[in-house]
């Protein structure tokens, strides 16, 4: 039987909780709050899902942290994708007005961080109108996609409402650990925040270069031949364009659950051919390894398996204390080679499976097969077809599994002692 969670759950090995990870209901997206230590805690917030995620769950928790005299030491927006940053737009806009919590530093790569020749000239009125029209389309899209339960009439979406514009308006320390440059492994591999160390696993400059080429190709396709400048209109147009055009081609091919409930079927699943993720936006994801008091936690965003494998392997860590599975368990972001270095006894999968049929059985099969001799727990913040498949008694016994499934209406708390 799968273990269904009706309220917030905290899983402990003893009375001392050194690290707590809160995985929020973020529909098909990501939102994680990582709290480190018992006293003088440090907090790392990674992505914010949709606006509902912020208003329904995250906001109250952030206000509680402020009451305790604590702050967000690091806020990471992994990449420009609606299921990761629409909630961040709501959060930062609200925080700029209400100062719900102090944010020590933000990591987020956008237009201004791409290595691109930018002219010093100004845009003509016609060129400004073209970009403003694109921004208006993006604003309309964000307003439509951000909310499911909160009335859209309660939300004002206006010029300057991109995440980049809001970060500038709020005066946050933005990529300051990288001297204002892109968060990239080629710029700095390891960052120290007091007693917390963070290794950058993705992106590198090559992945960011592909994102730049995607942007320039979009401009060419629209027959925009005007000069690229430092004008903030480009920042807004870049962010909205990526939000609107990401993952238009979605692979919804599903493997039959009924035909894959045996150990032999798992062995077949891991050998199947898969087209790997080639999205430049996902490739630009900020993926990290957090090291604190000898514990190692992987948060892999929607990163590509090639760069993740290479850089995780180079860490030389035999076993991780926790792994946030890349791209919500997409088959396109998990290879056998990558699963071999993801040795862990805790795996987090954040998605309700509604939009992209994630997580895919092929990804779970690789993870459980390559970790079959390790006692491990899989955490799902929503019940999905895959969570039902993985939690049969035969599967749990054969692969040393425990499965924790949230209701999708409250966060999961996962403790690492």
From TrEMBL:
Domain of life: Bacteria
Record-annotated Metallo-beta-lactamase domain positions: 27-96
Alphabetical list of Gene3D superfamilies matching this protein: Ribonuclease Z/Hydroxyacylglutathione hydrolase-like (3.60.15.10)
Record keywords: Hydrolase
GO MF term list: hydrolase activity
Name of the protein in question: Beta-lactamase superfamily II metal-dependent hydrolase
Source organism (scientific name): Bacillus benzoevorans
């Amino acid at each position: 039987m799968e273990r269904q969670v009706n309220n917030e759950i905290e899983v402990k090995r003893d009375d001392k909780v050194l690290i707590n990870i809160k995985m929020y209901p973020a529909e098909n997206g990501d939102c994680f709050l990582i709290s480190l230590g018992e006293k003088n805690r440090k907090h790392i917030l990674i992505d914010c899902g949709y606006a509902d995620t912020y208003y329904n769950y995250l906001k109250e928790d952030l206000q509680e942290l402020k009451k305790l005299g604590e702050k967000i030491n690091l806020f990471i927006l992994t990449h420009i994708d609606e299921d990761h940053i629409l909630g961040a737009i709501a959060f930062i806009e609200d925080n700029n007005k209400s100062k719900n919590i102090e944010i020590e530093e933000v990591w987020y790569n956008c237009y201004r961080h791409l290595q691109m020749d930018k002219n010093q000239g100004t845009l003509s009125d016609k060129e400004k109108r073209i970009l403003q029209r694109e921004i208006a389309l993006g604003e309309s899209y964000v307003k439509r996609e951000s909310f499911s339960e909160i009335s859209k009439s309660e939300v004002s979406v206006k010029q300057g409402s991109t995440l980049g514009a809001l970060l500038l308006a709020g005066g946050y320390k933005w990529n300051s650990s990288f001297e204002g440059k892109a968060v990239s492994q080629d710029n700095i591999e390891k960052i120290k925040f007091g007693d917390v160390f963070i290794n950058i696993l993705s992106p590198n400059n090559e992945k960011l270069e592909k994102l730049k080429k995607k942007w320039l190709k979009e401009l060419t396709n629209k027959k925009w031949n005007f000069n690229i400048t430092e004008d903030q209109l480009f920042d807004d147009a870049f962010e909205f364009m990526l939000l609107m055009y990401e993952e238009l081609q979605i692979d919804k091919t599903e493997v039959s659950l009924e035909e894959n409930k045996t150990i032999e079927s798992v062995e077949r699943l891991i050998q199947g051919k898969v087209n790997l993720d080639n999205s430049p936006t996902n490739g630009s994801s900020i993926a990290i390894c957090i090291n604190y008091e000898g514990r190692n936690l992987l948060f892999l965003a929607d990163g590509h398996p090639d760069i993740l494998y290479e850089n995780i392997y180079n860490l030389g860590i035999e076993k991780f204390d926790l792994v946030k599975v890349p791209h919500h368990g997409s088959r396109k972001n998990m290879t056998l080679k990558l699963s071999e270095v993801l040795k862990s006894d805790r795996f987090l999968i954040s998605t309700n499976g509604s939009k992209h049929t994630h997580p895919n059985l092929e990804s779970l099969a690789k993870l459980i097969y390559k970790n079959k001799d390790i006692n491990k727990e899989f955490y799902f913040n929503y019940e999905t077809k895959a969570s039902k498949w993985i939690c049969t008694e035969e599967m749990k016994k054969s692969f040393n599994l425990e499965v924790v499934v949230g209701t999708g209406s409250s966060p999961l708390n996962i403790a690492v002692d």
